[in-house]
């Protein structure tokens, strides 16, 4: 498979940017999916020791990937302790 791709790139060098952008997009999407699986509080990998990981979040902890005009360090506690 790699030899076919290498042969095509040698005969058509204009395909090189296509392979670079497709490979970069696939890499970024895999990294984002890994980040969602490992850092999101909605995902529970260990149900025995930590069945509800969303209850262990601090009120000023940022877990969203992108924040718009929000300073999480200045938030007040607005929920009860469980």
TrEMBL record:
Principal subcellular localization: mitochondrion
Membrane topology: Single-pass membrane protein
Cross-referenced InterPro entries: B12D
UniProt keyword annotation of GTP-binding present: no
Source organism superkingdom: Eukaryota
Transmembrane segments: 15-38
UniProt subcellular location: Mitochondrion inner membrane
Coiled coil, from the record: none
Keywords: Electron transport, Membrane, Mitochondrion, Mitochondrion inner membrane, Respiratory chain, Transmembrane, Transmembrane helix, Transport
Family label: Belongs to the complex IV NDUFA4 subunit family.
PANTHER family for the chain: CYTOCHROME C OXIDASE SUBUNIT NDUFA4, NADH-UBIQUINONE OXIDOREDUCTASE MLRQ SUBUNIT
Name this polypeptide is given: Cytochrome c oxidase subunit NDUFA4
Gene: NDUFA4
């Amino acid at each position: 498979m790699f030899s076919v791709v290498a042969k095509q790139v040698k005969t058509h060098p204009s395909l090189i940017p296509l392979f670079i952008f497709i490979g970069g997009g696939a890499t970024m999407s895999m990294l984002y999916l890994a980040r969602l699986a490992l850092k999101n509080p909605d995902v529970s990998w260990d149900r025995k020791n930590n069945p509800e990981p969303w209850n262990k979040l601090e009120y000023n902890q940022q877990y969203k990937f992108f924040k718009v005009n929000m300073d999480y360090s200045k938030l007040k506690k607005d929920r009860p302790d469980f």
